[in-house]
Design goal:
Length: 557
């Protein structure tokens, strides 16, 4: 059961006639407000309910709140179908202005003060209570300030950037207000897994770090000028050296006094790999050199490495099997994909759900891993190593020069091509980018052309040519009848007018290059048909009579 409300007015109920929508979907994202869209035909009872930036839209599924936000603006198409775009309730914090501020307290206390000021400015339906806060600071003391006014949403973003964690909105059990929670970690692990060959849709790995740094020069709070002293004290100070906490700047706290006289920290391994990439970083809330050194070391540890980002798209099988645990934004999901060398937990970062066509829904999972060498290519190396090992074994078998060895080698070769072609196709761009060693390995195993993939086993081909002409002929025959072009599989002898093309979403029958029939979405489409005996649809059959007439009869099983 799916229901949509505009304020308290019913917009859609999957059980009722007269409230149909032509489209209904929403997106939920970690650290973002999320969106929703709905499209209704002219004459819909709720056609004129929505007022921009005022109407609160809620979407429920089996009494579970999926989305809460507000309508932004309507758009009408040529046929007067109206589409309403909505933004999530986290964006309500953009409606209040936070005047210049200075906070020096623990994270939970500061969040409570910020939300209290925000609630005082906005309407009741936009207000929030502060719920669970698990984000902490080692000293339970942070400083955050701004000399200019800003939106409350900007203040929340600064708090999150400073202390980390995740803002999650939940329903209160005792109040009509929604609850803003601030969690350091999201630890719920869904019992549903993502499996290669089952519900894994897409996989991508990227590497980079725009904030890469190998040397950090940290600065703490400003040094307050000393109170006025007597002339004798002043002269004594001038004759002496600078205080050890001012460093060379004379204005801010440095780490020289606790870092062997150096005002910087560096990671020697990172410098050896990337060179000196220095950056000055300021922490206005740190007043002790030891604490400043700890902050700098932590910052360097988090930013000294290439960040590998893995992004996955998958289907939530609970939408077709209610007995399964569903996937929600913020859940930890186990992902297992042998071709990619992945077997670990991923955080569900985005969810897009088409409520009228669940088969179009998907979830996106992401994970960041930091390594000095960049992307972890363990899965790539393993696949390539398996392929090379099989090739060496095939060559050894062929040297025996027996018919049995020839047949066995051909079987192994075909198996490996079928087994690894998908993995190589998915990983080719990443493998080329990871480094010279992997790039060289791919170039000897696979040649990528504009329209097709051609696999070249150089050692194997040489051995076949030298030892067994019959085996070479059979190998060429396979290439003659089975071809890979543009990601499709072509079956049929080269030059033959009748061929079969297997594509991602359809199987086509071609006659002289023209498509005469195809299978798509569990349906068969035929340009022209000629039935020699009878045509049957369900229990109804069309059968020609001996006199040339056509009979329409019901078939009884």
């Amino acid at each position: 059961m799916i229901q949509v409300y505009a304020d308290r007015q019913l917009v859609y109920d999957s059980r009722l006639d007269g409230y149909e929508l032509s489209a209904l979907s929403y997106t939920a994202s970690l650290q973002k407000a999320g969106t929703a869209t709905l499209t209704m035909p002219p004459g819909h009872p709720a056609y004129d309910y929505f007022k921009s930036y005022t109407t609160v839209v809620t979407i429920y599924k089996d009494d579970e709140l999926l989305f809460r936000g507000r309508a932004l603006y309507p758009t009408d198409d040529f046929y007067n179908f109206r589409t309403i775009t909505c933004e999530g309730e986290l964006n309500f914090f953009r409606d209040g202005v936070h005047r210049p501020y200075v906070y020096q307290d623990g994270p939970a206390a500061i969040l409570a003060q910020v939300v209290e000021l925000y609630n005082a400015q906005v309407e009741a339906y936009k207000q929030f209570d502060v719920g669970t806060v698990t984000v902490t600071d080692p000293n339970n003391y942070i400083r955050i300030e701004n000399s200019k006014a800003e939106q409350f949403s900007d203040t929340l973003n600064k708090l999150r950037e400073l202390c980390g964690g995740y803002f999650v909105i939940t329903q209160s059990g005792t109040s009509s207000r929604r609850v803003l929670n601030w969690y350091a970690e999201l630890e719920y692990r869904t019992r549903q897994a993502v499996e290669f060959g089952e519900n894994l849709l897409d996989y991508a790995r990227t590497g980079g770090n725009s904030d890469l740094v190998t040397v950090v020069i940290p600065y703490g709070a400003k040094i307050e000028p000393p109170e006025e002293e007597t002339t004798e004290d002043t002269e004594a100070t001038e004759e002496g050296s600078e205080t050890e906490t001012t460093g060379e700047t004379g204005e801010r706290l440095t780490v020289e006094s606790v870092n062997e006289g150096r005002d910087y920290v560096q990671d020697y391994d990172a410098v050896a790999r990337y060179g000196v990439i220095a950056r000055a970083v300021y922490w206005d809330d740190v007043t002790e050199p030891a604490n400043l050194l700890a902050r700098a070391q932590k910052y360097l540890h988090e930013n000294k490495s290439i960040i590998t980002t893995l992004e996955l798209s998958a289907l939530d099988l609970s939408r077709v099997d209610v007995s399964m645990d569903s996937m929600q934004v913020g859940d930890l999901v186990r992902v297992r994909s042998k071709p990619h060398g992945v077997d670990e937990d991923f955080l569900l970062t985005d969810r897009t759900e088409d409520l009228l066509h669940p088969e179009n829904s998907k979830v996106t999972l992401g994970k960041e891993a930091q390594t000095l060498t960049g992307a972890d290519a363990a899965g790539d190396y393993k696949n390539a190593a398996d392929l090379q090992a099989a090739e060496r074994q095939i060559v050894a078998d062929y040297k025996v020069n027996t018919a049995a060895a020839v047949q066995e080698a051909q079987t192994t070769l075909a198996s490996m091509i079928q087994q690894t072609s998908e993995a190589l196709r998915l990983e080719v761009s990443e493998m080329v980018m990871t480094g010279e060693e992997v790039q060289s390995l791919v170039s000897t195993s696979m040649e990528q052309l504009a329209e097709s993939f051609t696999f070249t086993f150089t050692e194997l081909q040489t051995t076949i040519d030298a030892n067994d002409a019959a085996a070479r002929e059979q190998f060429e025959t396979l290439q003659k009848y089975i071809r890979f072009e543009g990601g499709d599989i072509i079956l049929g002898e080269v030059g033959n007018e009748l061929t079969l093309r297997i594509e991602n979403d359809r199987i086509s029958f071609l006659d002289a290059g023209a498509e005469v029939a195809y299978l798509n979405n569990q349906r068969l489409y035929v340009t022209d048909g000629h039935f020699l005996h009878s045509l049957r649809v369900g229990n109804i059959a069309a059968v020609p009579r001996a006199n040339g007439n056509l009979s329409i009869v019901k078939v009884v099983e």
